[in-house]
Amino acid sequence: MTAVKAADIDRFIAKPDPALPIVLVYGPDAGLVRERVDALVKVSVDDPNDPFAFVRIEGEDLSGNPSRLVEEAHTVPLFGGRRAVLVKAGSRNIAAAVEMVVNAPSPECRVIIEAGDLRKSSPLRAMCEKAKVAAALPCYVDNERDLARLIDDEMRAAGLSIAPDARATLLSLLGGDRLASRNEIRKLALYAQGQSRIEVADVMAVVADASALALDGVIDAAFAGKTADVDGEFFKARAGGSSPAAIISAAIRHIASLHKMKLAVDGGDSVDFAMQRGAPPVHFSRQKLVGDALRLWTAPRLVRAMQQLAEASLDARRNAVLAEAIAQRTLLSLAVNARKRG
Predict the structure, then answer these.
(1) So what EC number does this one have (predicted)?
(2) Tens of pLDDT, residues 133-178
(3) Which residue ranges make up each domain of the chain?
(4) Using CA atoms, how far apart are residues 287 and 143, in angstroms rounded to an integer?
(5) Which DSSP helix (H) or strand (E) runs through 144?
(6) Are 59 and 91 in contact (CB under 8 A)?
(7) Distances (CA, A) of 196 to 90, 169, 199
């Protein structure tokens, strides 16, 4: 069995086993999948920009022509050197194409397969975990220890230190997607250039928007059907400086994101994977309530709710004195409707 343990993945990527020329990189953390795929490409070919050395194939192309993968794997580079093929699995079943290259691997070409969250019973995952010439690298959402190591690595690279309370605050705001987390830390490090230590104020200024965090609370409560929490979260948002118009606008943006994720779920993605593929991915602190919302709402009902919010936005602009009551009443109505079926 060649499913690489989480503790051994970084070591494997730094020096891939030549006896395992086929590598499947998969999991719910799309950013971590992308990061590890990029690292594998860098150690597998001398020049990723050389089309004779590095080839990208979409899974859709393989579903209709499964022999293409094994043909590409056995193609001799025009100018010699190492060669690699990257396959983006997508939603199509490419197990037949991968099986062909598993049965006839090329020691001169690394085949890297980039996939999403695959169940243990998935034909692609099962095949790569069992094949003697393949390795399967799972990419799960970072836990607190992973995020702490990521912060420390990036701080060290930037020549900065971070205060313990700032580190704890930063930890609470990261997660869900490795690339997104790394980008936030690098943005913070860039902001802090010229100073020796990062403080809580720096984290709050760059990574966290206090009013946005308050908005998340009321919006997530409404769409998850938490009627008892809506009023309290609404007043927190107002106390944080968010206007009724800003709250409604944030709800409209969120429902558009929910609708996109719901369509992905209806298309076969898991709720967790749909949240990771969001733009941006759903922060781990919100995943429970956003996941509840995705299970409660249907795509058509989300469209109707979006129309309701649009009407509320118009009413609030026309009746500024009643804007707060309109926004609060609309969010409470959404929370009640979230629990309704049909």
Answers:
(1) 2.7.7.7
(2) 999 999 887 888 888 999 999 999 999 999 998 888 888 777 767 8
(3) 6-138, 144-206, 210-338
(4) 14
(5) helix 144-158
(6) yes
(7) 44, 18, 10
- Count the alpha carbons within 13 Å of 314 in the hemisphere toward its beta carbon: 6
Output the six-digit token pair for 250: 């944030």
Task: Identify the CATH assignment for 144-206 out of 3.40.50.970, 1.10.8.60, 3.30.530.80, 3.30.70.1450.
Answer: 1.10.8.60
Tell me if 302 sits within 8 A of 259, measured CB to CB. yes
How many CB atoms lie under 10 A from the CB of residue 119? 8
Identity of the residue numbered 268? G
CATH level 3 topology of 210-338: Zinc Finger, Delta Prime; domain 3 (1.20.272)
Tokens describing residue 231: 């009023």
Average of per-residue pLDDT across 97-117:
90
Retrieve residue 63's tokens: 């579903």
E-strand ranges in the chain read: 22-26, 54-58, 83-88, 109-114, 134-138, 161-162, 197-198
How many Å is the Cα radius of gyration of the chain?
Answer: 24
Does the pLDDT value for residue 81 go beyond 80? no
Indicate the class that CATH gives domain 6-138: alpha beta
CA angle 168/173/179 to nearest 5° reads 115
Phi, psi (deg, nearest 5) at residue 25: -115, 120
Q: List, in sequence order, every residue forming a beta bridge with 86; answer none if it has no partner.
A: 56, 112
pLDDT confidence of residue 117: 84
Are the C-beta atoms of 233 and 247 separated by less than 8 Å?
no
Relative to beta strand 54-58, strand 22-26 is unpaired
Nearest Cα neighbor of 73 from 11, 119, 21, 10 is 21
